[in-house]
Amino acid sequence: MSKDEKKELIRFKYEYSPDFREEYVTGARGGIQNIYHLSLNFYSEKSKLRSLEDSLCEYTDGSRRIEPKEPSKEPDIIERTFKVGLVLSFNAVRELARYLEEKVKEIDMIEENLSKQISGGGDEDD
Fold first, then answer.
1. Contacts by 113-121 with C-beta closer than 8 Å and gap 24+?
2. What is the pLDDT of residues 24-57, one digit of tens each?
3. Cα dist. 50→26, 32, 56, 65, 81 in Å?
4. pLDDT mean over 62-80
5. What's the confidence (pLDDT) of residue 126?
6. Interatomic CA distance for residues 43 and 70, integer angstroms
7. 1 contacts: CB under 8 Å, gap ≥ 6
8. What is the C-alpha separation between 69 and 57, in angstroms, rounded?
9. Which of 25, 47, 57, 91 qualifies as a cystine partner to 42, CB 3.0-4.6 A?
10. Is the whole model's pTM more than 0.70, yes or no?
């Protein structure tokens, strides 16, 4: 067989499970679960509202502002809600790392091309 010829060894067919769901996530936490697996839990985050009531206030200079009815002196709270967790074999972790590295390179190329187009440095026919 020459270098350019190929022989199909296995064909993979993909389908979605009936209970498949897609979630938007903003981060992940996890770690090595035991000597064979890595646990990876994905979460989304949002700022917790400090007050569920606001008031329209008018100041002596005539300005108006909407302010929390009961201002809080506590620090901001970001709520992280875990959406889905995965337990991966080390082999699957390596495969995921390769896949993500490839996709990051593609994203970088897309962003670079967009940046060139926005700045006017793209290839355009006159």
1. none
2. 999 999 999 988 999 999 999 998 776 678 889 9
3. 22, 36, 16, 17, 18
4. 83
5. 46
6. 29
7. 7
8. 10
9. 25
10. no
